[in-house]
Design a protein that fits this description.
Elements: H1 8-23, E1 30-35, H2 38-48, E2 58-62, E3 65-70, H3 72-75
Parallel strand pairs: 1-3
Antiparallel strand pairs: 2-3
């Protein structure tokens, strides 16, 4: 799983580069999905979507590229009680 290695400015610059590079590949909408640990999603939400802290996923749109941050941890049902 991914770990947050940069500050907000570094993250924004990298996302902008990804958006710019993917823009000319195909004539379609571009979506990029990051599967992260829930703790890292919560850290990112503090930068981008603090009001949505109750959710374990979120998305942002940057120059027409949709960046989706999810955690497969939150998608996997808890079967420990079975």
């Amino acid at each position: 799983m991914a770990k947050i290695k940069k500050d907000l400015d570094g993250i924004l610059k990298d996302l902008a580069q990804i958006s710019e590079l993917s823009e000319g590949l195909f004539d379609c909408k571009t979506s990029v999905v990051f599967d992260m640990e829930i703790t890292d999603i919560k850290k990112l939400q503090m930068y981008f979507k603090e009001k949505d802290m109750g959710y374990n996923s979120f998305k942002i749109d940057m120059s027409g590229t949709e960046f989706i941050f999810i955690s497969s941890e939150s998608l996997t049902p808890d079967t420990s009680d079975l």
